[in-house]
Automatic annotation (TrEMBL):
Residues 290-447 form the F5/8 type C domain. Residues 679-707 have a biased composition (Polar residues). It comes from Sparus aurata (Gilthead sea bream). The gene is DCBLD2. InterPro entries: CUB_dom, FA58C, Galactose-bd-like_sf, LCCL, LCCL_sf, Neuropilin_MCO_CoagFactor, Sperma_CUB_dom_sf. This is Discoidin, CUB and LCCL domain containing 2.
Length: 707
């Protein structure tokens, strides 16, 4: 509480002293007597001496200043509050004094946080701010402050639940005074009414706002749900948003995000927000979500659920009849609002919600008609569960009925929140002040009342305390720690399943219809690479292949060992059905195609007679259409006059020594029959003149016979 005398008049005390001799000690005695009469005041002492023969009179005039003349706007709540010097943020007056006595419930202690401290004095003798533990004569000093632009960042703690704050000022020329907040020590994150969104860098945070922040002169910009500009004071914006009340203060949960191009100007809870332009960031508040409309605007509430004390009916000069009935009292509805037949404080508008609801706020407008600029500037709210017994809304810890500030014009909306909320079925609006005539449109804000079980669960899980808020954060972290790994594992499994299915499908497609050939031999890449590899590497593959027509001819032969020879002088042609001989090739190396030559399709059509293969010598015109493969019998070399169709003598190859596999390269040791020659259709050797590209056949054994 604030300690002040019973009245604000100056007090004059006159002391008559009969002495014969005045000296300095007597004058000091008179001074102390005046101070005892005004112990809490600054006194002006003036001694007037009058000498007579036997009587010496001294008059002491004590001018006592009221104890409250230095006190600025203050709110002293039961658990938090705000104090300031007179005239803040302007200069405080000269020669003033003020004391505040603060008490909180027993078992609690008080701490203070300074928003500003700017007192002109260097030695704290005339101008200062002093904090005491306790109240009354037994109080003890905690700290004493003075100085211009003093920064006090730490919390100042008292030892008990009672504190005295004393502010003294003498003659000065500058200084804004002081502005501070207090709360019980359980709220360690107490902030002042001047803290802004830019002062806290976290994207999400929780702070405790003190009561009385409407004493701040700082401006805010924005509204809910869009958000507030980051330069707005947090606690003032919280009052505007209806998150905390000015009478009690409370905890706020703030979320910062990217700014918006424009901030709306609105009036809510006695706080006017101004319009603003683009900013880098904004902040908004987390709430319990019970701020939805209750059906007046969207016709969820029927016309029969609206009633009033009276209705204004009238006719204009043209004879048109108009009724301003309760059904017109819907926010944002076009047309006339509700208006009573007479404008006095006995009028009311009633809403029946059919069942009890939790009502957290109300939004009102005036007539919204340019030609009838009527509106309600102040009103009270009454509520009931049976429409018989009515209660007038009061703020928490208050003994006075709450009067809400209404509209300031006929058009714009004004919102007021109920902290604590109302739980009732019937709500009445009773205007106390209006402009010209009572006219009103409204919407109620709130939600359904949870069931008893849900309420008990919420009371257990979501109390408004720091400890439970911390528990919630820990639960969120634990839940995230479990869900994130599970989601990662599930996603990984899905990705692996899709990849494996895709790979298996591709392999299945590539293997269809190719059961008789190795995978590498089915690829065009390997076919072209085999032409560039030496004979030894080629022979390591299963290069001897037979067509189905030749299999029968070779079944009677014994196993033929694989030949090992030096690399071919020329690249081996890839001719299906021809055995790789391992000796030097009889095919001519490519010297480049003739101009205009193009390779025909080797599979779709036979080679044209006038187009030659890039390597092989052409067969005679009388020969077969296709080249006849040379089948080598490792036991006997075919004679020049023999034919593949004629059976040959099977010679034993088992007794042949290593010399049998030597390639014969000395042309002087063999005759003409030792070379391959083209054959005609009858199997006879066709003499050829040019054997430039014929390569001798490897053989160390002569055929044992001719057929």
């Amino acid at each position: 509480m604030i300690k002040a005398p019973a009245n604000s008049m100056f007090h004059f005390y006159i002391i008559w002293v009969k002495i014969c001799l005045i000296n300095l000690e007597s004058y000091q005695l008179l001074l102390w007597a005046c101070l005892l009469l005004c112990p809490l005041c600054l006194c002006f002492i003036n001694g007037i001496l009058s000498f007579a023969e036997t009587v010496c009179v001294c008059v002491c005039v004590c001018v006592c200043c009221p104890a409250g003349d230095g006190c600025g706007p203050s709110v002293l709540g039961p658990s938090s509050g705000t104090l300031s010097s007179l005239g803040y943020p302007g200069t405080y007056p000269n020669d003033t004094v003020c004391e505040w006595e603060i008490s909180v419930p027993r078992g609690n202690r008080i701490h203070f946080r300074f928003a500003e401290l700017d007192i002109e004095d260097s030695d704290c003798q005339v101008n200062y701010l002093r904090l005491y533990n306790g109240i009354g004569p037994e109080r003890s000093e905690i700290v004493k402050y003075c100085g211009l632009g003093l920064k006090v960042n730490e919390l100042i703690e008292a030892t008990g639940n009672q504190v005295t704050v004393q502010f003294m000022s003498g003659t000065h020329h500058s200084g804004r005074g002081f502005y501070l907040s207090y709360s019980t020590t359980e709220h360690t994150d107490l902030i002042t009414c001047l803290h802004k969104g830019t002062d806290i860098p976290e994207a999400e945070f929780s702070k405790y706002c003190p009561a009385g922040c409407l004493t701040s002169t700082e401006e805010i910009s924005g509204t809910i749900p869009n958000g507030y500009r980051e330069s707005s004071p947090l606690c003032v914006a919280a009052i505007h948003a209806g998150v905390v009340s000015n009478a009690e203060g409370g905890r706020i949960y703030v979320v910062s995000s990217k700014g918006i191009p424009h901030y709306e100007a609105t009036l809510a809870n006695n706080v006017t927000s101004t319009g603003g332009t683009l900013s880098n960031s904004l902040f908004t508040f987390k709430t319990n979500g019970c701020y939805g409309t209750l059906g007046l605007e969207n016709s969820g509430v029927a016309d029969t659920q609206l009633s009033a004390s009276s209705v204004w009916e009238w006719s204009n000069n043209m004879g048109q009849h108009s009724v301003w009935a309760p059904s017109g009292a819907r926010l944002k509805k076009a047309g006339p609002p509700w208006a009573p037949s007479q404008s006095n404080q006995n009028q009311w508008l009633q809403v029946d919600l059919k069942k009890e609801k939790r009502i957290t706020g109300i939004t009102t407008t005036g007539s919204t008609l340019r030609e009838y600029q009527y509106y309600v500037s102040a009103y009270q709210v009454l509520y009931s569960s049976d429409s018989q017994q009515w209660n007038i809304y009061r703020e928490a810890n208050s003994t006075q009925d709450k009067v809400f500030k209404g509209n300031i014009n006929y058009l714009h909306e004004v919102r007021n929140n109920f902290i604590p909320p109302i739980e009732a079925r019937f709500v009445r609006i009773s205007p106390t002040q209006w402009q010209q005539r009572i006219a009103l449109k409204l919407e109620l804000l709130g939600c359904a009342i949870p069931s008893v079980r849900t309420q008990e669960r919420k009371a257990f899980l979501i109390p408004n305390t720091d400890i439970c808020h911390l528990v919630f954060l820990l639960l969120d972290v634990a839940l995230a720690a479990v869900l994130v790994p599970v989601l990662v594992m599930v996603l990984t499994g899905l990705i692996l399943t899709v990849v494996c299915a895709w790979h298996w499908r591709n392999r299945k497609k590539s293997s269809e219809g190719t059961y008789d050939l190795p995978h590498w031999d089915r690829t065009d890449w390997w076919k072209s690479m085999k032409q560039l590899l030496p004979s030894k590497m080629v022979e390591t593959e299963d290069s001897v292949r037979y067509s189905s027509s030749e299999v029968g001819r070779l079944t009677g032969r014994g196993a033929v060992p694989r030949l090992h020879a030096e690399p071919a002088e020329y690249a081996q042609p890839l001719v299906s059905g021809v055995t790789t001989l391992g000796a030097r090739s009889t095919f001519k190396p490519d010297e480049g195609p003739d101009p205009g030559y193009s390779d025909p399709d080797l599979y779709d059509a036979p080679i044209s007679p006038d187009v030659y293969h890039a390597y092989a010598e052409p067969l005679p015109a009388s020969g077969s259409e296709y080249a006849t493969p040379i089948v080598v019998d490792m036991g006997c070399h075919p004679s020049g006059g023999s034919s593949l169709n004629q059976p040959s003598t099977v010679c034993s190859f088992m007794g042949a020594g290593p010399a049998a596999l030597l390639t014969r390269t000395d042309s002087s040791q063999s005759g003409r029959s030792a070379y391959d020659t083209p054959k005609n259709a009858t199997g006879q050797v066709t003499p050829t003149e040019d054997l430039t590209y014929q390569v001798p056949q490897s053989s160390t054994q002569k055929p044992s016979g001719h057929s």
